[in-house]
């Protein structure tokens, strides 16, 4: 029951938060950290128990939930969801550490929502039942709404309402798709309709017209979450106004729900429609890469710059997914993990100076490497990781994506490559203006360098970034069989082997 534990521990800990005294801030923080560490330990046990080379679901848990409608508590993990679950639990621990001193108001409610959010995120990745998936998808929306709306910046209400409306619109469309699939999926043992994801995929031989509508119903919900251009406009506002930990978890995990959804649902269930939409989505991904980089280049706010970089990076992820070959899919999934590490670290780093100066404007800094040398060094390593320097995680993911894209469509590959150059431009230019030059502002002369407590979460992410960049094989060997299985089912239009291994 490891997967159930991975959901139950943060959910129960969040309820425990409400039972603790509101004034015992230290106790609240300690319990939240303990709950997140326990969840992370369970995710490591899942990782350790995962059988390398197996393409199908492992550690499957199946219990009756709502028999009258065919909904079951059905969980499992494969190569596609394995590292996304581990990334979710790790980033939650680091986010709680990052919130230790910065969150001083309504601490009880803050950690309640954060732990509830973690339970929902793990549930989305582990769900093998469409009903469970949709419930968990919606559960995530509520905590994020409050995390931005209560603990966010000056324009937090605008940002959180915009985030809620965009996401809710996509969720309603997906609900229609889920219900259609439900009424066209029958459990052969009971003869009743079921939400079973494996059976739904196996029985998804829909006519092309139906596939188009279902692809749009699911795909628009996922595209909003990614976010794919031009559905990205909620993201910069949400990132900018969210508290530091909220930005980290939003970029690190929540955006991956969209890319994960395309891999899990659209490709295997609606293959013919996917082929028709490949040019559309590929061009939108390319526009997102170029547009995100160009807009990031002119940002005055560091956090907004990092937010727009996410639009560009997720454009690469979508391009790799819709290259529809092994290299593209492997690079896409690896880059989802990489983006969570590198961009999460960038948001943590921006949060460090924001806590000291209460400004994120690039113009308010300059020359701070003189007074914060350790901070400057850490920021440079993370920036190079985000750019995709060889020996860092970003290089491996982008390289695989570009190989897959060139193999699929040379024109797409040539244009997308320019995004790598633009990423170097906006990040290094920002770094130069913030850290080099003269110390113009007197307030910056008194800045204290990063403390060990602040550096620990960032150092953890840097170690992972370099480890993946130097030796990505442990990840690739675990994700490739599952991706190959999805690709085989997509290419053949046959889905009867989803429960088994690759023949």
Characterization of the model:
This protein is mainly alpha-helical and 503 residues long. The chain has a domain at 273-494. Helix content is 74%, strand content 3%. The protein has 19 helices and two strands. It has helices spanning 2-19, 25-49, 79-98, 107-126, 130-151, 156-183, 197-202, 208-225, 234-241, 244-269, 271-297, 302-321, 326-357, 373-387, 393-408, 410-435, 442-445, 452-470, 473-492, and strands spanning 58-66, 71-77. The protein has a two-stranded antiparallel sheet. Strand 1 (58-66) and strand 2 form a beta hairpin. The protein is globular. The protein starts with a helix and ends in an 11-residue tail after the last helix.
Could you outline the blueprint of secondary structure elements for this entry?
Blueprint: H1 2-19, H2 25-49, E1 58-66, E2 71-77, H3 79-98, H4 107-126, H5 130-151, H6 156-183, H7 197-202, H8 208-225, H9 234-241, H10 244-269, H11 271-297, H12 302-321, H13 326-357, H14 373-387, H15 393-408, H16 410-435, H17 442-445, H18 452-470, H19 473-492
Antiparallel strand pairs: 1-2
Helix pairs in contact: 1-2, 1-4, 2-3, 2-4, 3-4, 3-10, 3-13, 3-18, 3-19, 4-5, 5-6, 6-8, 6-9, 8-10, 8-11, 9-10, 9-12, 10-12, 10-13, 10-19, 11-12, 11-16, 12-13, 12-15, 12-16, 13-14, 13-15, 13-18, 13-19, 14-16, 14-18, 15-16, 15-18
């Amino acid at each position: 029951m490891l997967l159930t534990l991975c959901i139950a521990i943060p959910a129960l800990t969040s309820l425990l938060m409400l039972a603790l005294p509101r004034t015992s801030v230290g106790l609240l923080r300690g319990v939240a950290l303990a709950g997140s560490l326990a969840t992370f330990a369970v995710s490591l046990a899942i990782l350790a128990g995962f059988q390398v080379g197996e393409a199908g679901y492992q550690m499957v848990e199946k219990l009756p939930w709502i028999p009258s409608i065919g909904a079951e508590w059905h969980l499992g993990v494969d190569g596609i969801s394995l590292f996304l679950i581990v990334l979710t639990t790790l980033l939650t621990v680091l986010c709680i550490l990052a919130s230790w001193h910065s969150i001083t108001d309504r601490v009880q409610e803050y950690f309640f929502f954060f732990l509830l959010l973690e339970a929902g995120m793990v549930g989305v990745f582990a769900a093998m039942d469409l009903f469970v998936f949709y419930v968990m998808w919606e559960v995530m929306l509520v905590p994020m709404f409050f995390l931005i709306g209560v603990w966010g910046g000056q324009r937090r209400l605008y940002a959180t309402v915009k985030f809620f409306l965009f996401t809710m619109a996509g969720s309603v469309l997906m609900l229609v798709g889920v219900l259609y699939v439900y009424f066209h999926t029958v459990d052969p043992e009971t003869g009743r309709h079921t939400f079973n994801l494996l059976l739904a995929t196996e029985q998804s031989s829909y006519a092309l017209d139906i596939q188009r509508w279902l692809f749009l119903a699911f795909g628009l919900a996922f595209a909003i979450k990614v976010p794919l251009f031009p559905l990205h406009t909620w993201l910069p506002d949400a990132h900018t106004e969210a508290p530091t930990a909220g930005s980290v978890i939003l970029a690190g995990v929540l955006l991956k729900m969209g890319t994960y959804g395309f891999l899990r649902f659209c490709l295997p269930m609606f293959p013919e429609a996917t082929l028709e939409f490949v040019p559309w989505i590929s061009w939108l991904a390319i526009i997102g890469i170029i547009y995100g980089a160009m807009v990031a280049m002119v940002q005055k706010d560091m956090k907004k710059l990092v937010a727009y970089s996410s639009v560009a990076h997720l454009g690469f992820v979508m391009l790799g997914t819709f290259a529809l070959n092994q290299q593209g899919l492997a690079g896409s999934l690896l880059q989802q993990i990489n983006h969570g590490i590198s961009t999460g670290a960038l948001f943590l780093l921006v949060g460090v100076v924001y806590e000291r100066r209460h400004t994120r404007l690039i113009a308010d800094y300059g020359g701070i490497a003189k007074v914060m040398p350790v901070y400057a060094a850490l920021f440079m390593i993370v920036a190079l990781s985000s750019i995709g320097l060889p020996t860092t995680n970003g290089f491996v993911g982008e390289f695989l994506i570009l190989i897959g894209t060139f193999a699929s469509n040379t024109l797409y590959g040539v244009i997308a490559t320019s995004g790598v150059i633009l990423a170097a431009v906006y990040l290094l230019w920002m770094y130069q203006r913030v850290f080099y030059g003269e110390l113009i502002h007197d307030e910056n002369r008194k800045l204290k360098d990063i403390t060990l407590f602040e550096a620990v979460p960032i150092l953890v992410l840097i170690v992972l970034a370099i480890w993946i960049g130097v030796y990505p094989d442990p990840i690739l060997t675990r994700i490739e069989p599952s991706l190959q299985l999805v690709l085989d089912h997509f290419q053949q239009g046959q889905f009867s082997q989803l429960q088994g291994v690759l023949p």
